[in-house]
Amino acid sequence: MEKELNEVTASTDVGTKVVYEVSYLLLPTLSLEQVPVKVASVKDALVSSGATLISDEDPVLIDLAYSMTKVVQTNRHKADQGYFGWVKFEISKDSINQVKKFFDNNVDVLRHLIIKTVRENTLLNGKMKLKSEDKTKKFDDKSDEEAIDTPDVLKEEVATLELDKNIDDLVVV
User: Fold this and answer.
1) 153 and 116, same structural domain?
2) What are the 10-residue block averages of pLDDT along the chain, 173 residues in total?
3) 137 assigned to some structural domain
4) 96 burial class (0-12, 13-18, 19+ CB within 10 angstroms)?
């Protein structure tokens, strides 16, 4: 990956500014009080590398699609969750390697991804939404009557089927 970044940097004009976005996963072992501190250190590292911050979203705890491990010194951290956040920034092409090294060497970052992007907002609603928020919204959209009647109807059908089965078992032909 570093080789690819070096090739891109060498093949283009040095010093021109490019818009990047870094997405990162922080370890779930961090306490809620530590997360804002780590986010501030990420932003400080970007600014100290010469970046201009465009937009960002504070990390939220999400379930991961698969377990990830990170070895820090002699400790192996296995994670099924992580604090996902992102920052969009503008930086010169020759300084992006400093940003990459910061994330590679940060012991609290489980994974990260740096991509080139555009300055405009690319999110449809302007903010990331969790799947659990979608489910809650769908549930809230149902009327209270439907939510109450549906389980009763199902219970009556199940009770009728069980009663018919029990009667059939008792009848001797």
Assistant:
1) no
2) 49 72 93 94 94 93 92 85 95 92 92 91 62 49 49 68 75 64
3) no
4) buried
Beta bridge partners of 89: 20, 53
Domain of 165, in residue numbers: 142-170
Residue type, 130: L
* 19 and 98, same domain (yes or no): yes
3-state secondary structure the chain: CHHHHHHHHHHCCCCCEEEEEEEEEECCCCCCCHHHHHHHHHHHHHHHCCCEEEEEEEEEEEEEEEEEEEEECCEEEEEEEEEEEEEEEEEEHHHHHHHHHHHHHCCCEEEEEEEECCCCCCCCCCCCCCHHHHHHHHHHHCCHHHHHHHHHHHHHHHHHHHHHHHHHHHCCC
Q: Are residues 148 and 104 in the same domain?
A: no
Listed residue (2, 13, 4) closest to 92, CA to CA: 13
Q: Look up residue 152 and give its amino acid.
A: D
Would the pTM of this model clear 0.85, i.e. be above it? no
